[in-house]
């Protein structure tokens, strides 16, 4: 099977997931900034991973473009955020918004927990986070999830877990095998 993993990552958590997935699939992990030269149609499956930035999936434009150009290639995407996966209402809401229909119909999607590393953020994102912390402080008084998010982010954390990629890898293998069977 030939697979490629394209990823958008600022502080390295999404890149780590992309590299783990690529290693499992025996393919390459390519940053989205270098992905324009990739012929997505030449792969049995394309995996895309992007991080959540104020609810927005970074790299989504590349995904939508590649998807539109290669409707017969299986696409599997994963979004990486600081939100704990157990907060299903928040995760579901972000996923539904960031994988809109019809552009991303048929793109299989997963959510994986990343981490938070303030010191590795760009300056604009550091400033955005300072504002976010202020907002969260107010909310934290009445909202226990805001309080938990705030303390996790303030201290920094690494929530990546290699075991969490198993369903992503399994789905890529299934879709690539189905594509192979169709062509045989
Ligand atoms: C400005 C900013 C906004 C963020 N917004 C969200 C968000 O809406 N939802 C979420 O779950 N995580 C959010 N995060 C956390 C990142 O998604 C998380 O740190 C992720 O692991 C970063 O991935 P990377 O290391 O690949 O860049 C935000 C982080 C920053 C800096």
Provide structural commentary:
This protein has six helices and eight strands. Helix 4 (123-140) runs antiparallel to helix 5 (144-155). The strands form two sheets. Strands 1, 2, 3, 4, 5 and 6 form a six-stranded mixed sheet that branches. The chain has a two-stranded antiparallel ribbon with strand order 7-8. The protein folds into two domains: 3-117 and 158-183, Flavodoxin domain (Rossmann fold, 3-Layer(aba) Sandwich), CATH 3.40.50; 118-155. With 184 residues, the chain is α/β, with parallel strands linked by helices. Helix 3 (88-98) links the parallel strand 5 and strand 6. Flavin mononucleotide binds at residues 9-15, 51-55, 80-83, 114-116, 121, 125, 128-129. One of its GO terms (molecular function) is FMN binding. One of its GO terms (biological process) is heme biosynthetic process. It comes from Gordonibacter pamelaeae.
Short note summarizing the structure:
With 184 residues, the protein is α/β, with parallel strands linked by helices. It has 2 domains: 3-117 and 158-183, Rossmann fold (3-Layer(aba) Sandwich); 118-155.
List the helices and strands and how they pair.
Layout: E1 3-7, H1 13-25, E2 28-31, E3 45-53, E4 56-57, H2 60-69, E5 75-81, H3 88-98, E6 108-113, E7 115-116, H4 123-140, H5 144-155, E8 157-158, H6 166-183
Parallel strand pairs: 1-2, 1-3, 3-5, 5-6
Antiparallel strand pairs: 3-4, 7-8
The protein binds flavin mononucleotide (FMN).
């Amino acid at each position: 099977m030939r697979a490629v993993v394209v990823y958008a990552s600022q502080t390295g958590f999404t890149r780590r997931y992309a590299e783990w997935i690529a290693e499992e699939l025996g393919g390459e992990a390519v940053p989205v900034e270098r992905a324009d030269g990739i012929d997505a149609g030449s792969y049995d499956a394309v995996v895309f991973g992007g991080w959540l930035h104020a609810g927005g999936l970074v790299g989504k434009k590349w995904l939508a473009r590649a998807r539109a150009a290669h409707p017969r290639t299986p696409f599997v995407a994963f979004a990486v955020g600081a939100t704990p996966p157990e907060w299903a209402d928040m995760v579901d809401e972000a996923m539904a918004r960031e994988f809109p229909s019809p552009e991303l119909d048929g793109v299989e999607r997963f959510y994986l927990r990343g981490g938070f590393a303030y010191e590795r953020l760009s300056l604009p994102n550091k400033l955005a986070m300072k504002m976010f912390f202020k907002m969260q402080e107010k909310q934290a008084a009445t909202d226990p999830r805001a309080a938990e998010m705030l303390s996790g982010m303030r201290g920094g954390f690494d929530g990546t877990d290699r075991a969490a990629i198993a369903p992503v890898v399994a789905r890529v293998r299934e879709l690539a095998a189905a594509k192979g069977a169709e062509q045989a």
